[in-house]
Design brief:
Elements: H1 3-26, E1 31-32, E2 35-36, H2 40-51, H3 60-79, H4 83-96, H5 99-106, H6 117-128, H7 133-151, H8 157-160
Antiparallel strand pairs: 1-2
Length: 168
């Protein structure tokens, strides 16, 4: 082996180990001990603000409280999923919690907590109409889980004009 080849191999291995170490350091599961992780909550709150715009209370304090209740219902919905599905969803939340993952899957450059509702809506729309099946699946997972958790609350039915189940 020539010295130049050995040096290239050493530099390449060093870069690979550094990237792996960085990835392990920033990778945090989105579902921990039956709860959303601290990193996953801002993402789900941001998605809820975008998906449920016009349905959420307009007062910021009341909206914050409504989003906290929404996250609790979302945790219940996720807890009811099959273990394999929860694991995949946890991995997705972890990926969306990193800047490269968020940018690659959603196109959103801002962190979830700082992104505006129109920016998040544009990112969701881009995922919805994407040629990538993966991006479309991510869009449907985010939207469907958000809607399921929000409209599982009987208090949200009024916005739909749904009077509730018929008494038998």
């Amino acid at each position: 082996m020539q010295r130049r080849t050995l040096l290239k191999l050493g530099v390449g291995a060093g870069v690979a180990v550094a990237l792996a170490g960085w990835g392990a350091a920033v990778w945090r599961p989105g579902w921990v001990d039956g709860r959303l992780s601290a990193d996953a909550k801002p993402m789900w709150s941001a998605v809820a603000r975008a998906v449920l715009e016009g349905v959420l209370p307009s007062d910021p304090g009341v909206q914050r409280l409504a989003l906290e209740h929404h996250l609790a219902r979302l945790e219940g919905a996720i807890a009811g999923l099959a273990p394999a599905t929860r694991t995949e969803l946890s991995e997705l939340m972890a990926l969306l919690g990193t800047a490269p993952g968020r940018l690659a899957l959603t196109g959103l450059s801002e962190p979830w907590a700082q992104a505006t509702v129109p920016d998040i809506q544009a990112a969701l729309q881009a995922m919805r109409v994407s040629d990538s099946d993966t991006r479309q699946q991510v869009y449907h997972a985010l939207r469907d889980l958000t809607n399921a958790a929000w409209f599982a609350d009987a208090g949200a039915w009024v916005a739909l004009g749904y009077p509730g189940p018929v008494a038998i």
